[in-house]
């Protein structure tokens, strides 16, 4: 039986900051393209706040079935085809056996942490003002595959260094 991949993908600064005032605290073309190319064709799952952070042009994100997780069922209208779920468990039931991406934000990464099989982190080697963080303790249950690490964007005068890191769920039992 093939295992289902539940992949969390995010971009963070040096302090695991991921957002500021409901938006991303930065924009880098290389990172946006990496996100698009990596998630293209897959179902993507996001929380209400991340959905709201998308400009109308990108609601829904094209080329990917969009899913929103909302306890109150998101009261505003969404475009046809966008699915709304009341809990992570509802998402898991709807996407049973299908590989999919969890694309934020902070609350939703935490809500899916116990289910994720893989985490793809783009790290911006710079500090920004942020008010939303990825809970780095989630990574304690994952091991980085260093052989996959790569540079997404070299440091220049205008842009910071951005590297990509892949983490896989620990399979070894912790000794009692
Ligand atoms: N750097 C990155 O890679 C990245 C990626 C995505 C987002 N972001 C940033 O992250 C920020 C948003 O993150 P956030 O943590 O504030 O919000 P979020 O995770 O996007 O959404 C939070 C909402 O999701 C719903 N929710 C949360 N836990 C749930 C659960 N267990 N069951 C059902 N629904 C649940 C609730 O919606 P209801 O209130 O509707 O019930 C909650 O208000 C923004 O700044 C955004 O730009 C950054």
What does this structure look like?
There is one protein chain. The protein has 176 residues and is an alpha/beta fold. It has one domain (6-169): 3-Layer(aba) Sandwich (Dihydrofolate Reductase, subunit A). The chain is 18% helix and 28% strand. The protein has helices at 29-39, 48-53, 88-94, 106-112; strands at residues 6-12, 17-19, 43-47, 66-69, 83-85, 100-102, 118-124, 132-133, 142-144, 150-153, 162-169. Strands 1, 3, 4, 5, 6, 7, 9, 10 and 11 form a 9-stranded mixed beta sheet that branches. Strands 2-8 form a two-stranded antiparallel sheet. The longest helix is centred in the first third of the chain and has 11 residues, at 29-39. The two termini are 30 Å apart. Bound molecules: NADP nicotinamide-adenine-dinucleotide phosphate (NAP). NADP nicotinamide-adenine-dinucleotide phosphate binds at residues 10-12, 18-19, 22-24, 46-50, 53, 69-72, 74, 87-88, 103-108, 111, 132.
